[in-house]
């Protein structure tokens, strides 16, 4: 009896070693792949999972509802960005949904250059792929690589240029003034930002902009290890535009539960119940727009 059991066990192990695509060998593919790839590569090279759904006619995970939207990469539609040169953009959140800001991905090609935002509109850019060169009115230039970002107060002269290929995510909104408070331009990178306290929560939090009153929004970078989740099931007046930079998980929006992965964008209207749990095998990191420091009235 015992020898048959041992035989079956050995046979089982042997089978596992032979299987290339089966359950036994599945994990290695993902982990070796992501180790050799640059940061945030999935945002620009998304894959639907499972693979057999990738080309299914008419299939999309995208959802658009009155108080939230999930916009997945197969739904992104690029067109030339007005006032920009050699750049195409995909607007993913806009006032048509009820937001007071726009969020878009911009793909800069060879010899590309940004246009300026409309009058009184502030802008934040975050580099996802490649590198861009920033130049201000005094002709001072700086190169921004992946994970770097820049904030331009309203009516601040600047240009973003690229001589190869780069992808950035852009947030713009009409600035809400507060007497005696003036926002300054900011250029920095995520890795230079300190971890902040998150009482009652387990995720890691960084903020890309100063928390002072001059700024009417902030961008949070939130990291979750697989299995970690938000403690608070938030319902609040602030709006959000989210880009999942790394990882996979489940996002709850209202009464819907969505499997999400790197490259997905979410719009959250004020007061939509929201909650996230990180799953999968790697860290989840997302970037989150949030309006702050202003009365909703
Ligand atoms: C766009 O890029 C092409 C190819 O690099 C270049 O020849 C062209 O001058 C650029 N367009 C403008 C308006 O600069
Ligand atoms: C970048 O941010 C860090 C942390 O907030 C700050 O100490 C540093 O001075 C900033 N760098 C620049 C160039 O502003």
TrEMBL record:
SUPFAM superfamilies: RmlC-like cupins (SSF51182). Residues 1-19 form the signal peptide. It comes from the Eukaryota. Gene3D superfamilies: Jelly Rolls (2.60.120.10). InterPro entries: Cupin_2, RmlC-like_jellyroll, RmlC_Cupin_sf, UGHY, UGlyAH_cupin_C, UGlyAH_cupin_N. Keywords: Signal. Residues 221-287 form the Cupin type-2 domain. Pfam families: Cupin_2 (PF07883). This is Cupin type-2 domain-containing protein.
């Amino acid at each position: 009896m015992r020898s048959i059991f041992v035989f079956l066990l050995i046979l089982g192990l042997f089978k596992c070693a032979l299987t290339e695509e089966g359950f036994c060998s599945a994990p290695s593919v993902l982990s070796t792949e992501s180790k050799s790839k640059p940061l945030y590569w999935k945002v620009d090279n998304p894959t639907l999972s499972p693979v057999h759904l990738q080309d299914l006619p008419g299939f999309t995970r995208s959802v658009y509802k009155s108080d939230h939207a999930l916009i997945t990469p197969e739904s992104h539609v690029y067109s030339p960005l007005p006032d920009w040169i050699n750049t195409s953009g995909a607007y993913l959140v806009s006032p048509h949904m009820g937001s007071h800001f726009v969020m878009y991905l911009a793909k800069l090609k060879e010899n590309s250059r940004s246009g300026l935002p409309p009058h009184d509109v502030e802008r934040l850019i975050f580099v996802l792929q490649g590198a861009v060169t920033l130049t201000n009115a005094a002709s001072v230039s700086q190169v921004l690589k992946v994970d770097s970002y820049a904030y331009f107060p309203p009516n601040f002269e600047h240009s973003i240029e690229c001589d190869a290929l780069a992808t950035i995510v852009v947030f713009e909104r009409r600035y809400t003034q507060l007497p005696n408070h003036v926002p300054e331009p900011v250029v920095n990178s995520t890795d230079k930002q300190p971890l902040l306290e998150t009482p009652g929560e387990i995720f890691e939090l960084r903020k890309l902009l100063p928390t002072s009153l001059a700024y009417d929004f902030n961008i949070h970078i939130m990291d979750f290890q697989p299995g970690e989740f938000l403690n608070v099931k938030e319902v609040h007046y602030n709006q959000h535009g989210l880009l999942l930079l790394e990882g996979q998980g489940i996002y709850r929006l209202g009464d819907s539960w969505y499997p999400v992965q790197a490259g997905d964008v979410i719009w959250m209207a004020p007061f939509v119940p929201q909650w996230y749990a990180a799953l999968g095998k790697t860290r989840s990191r997302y970037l989150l727009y949030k309006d702050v420091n202003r009365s909703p009235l």
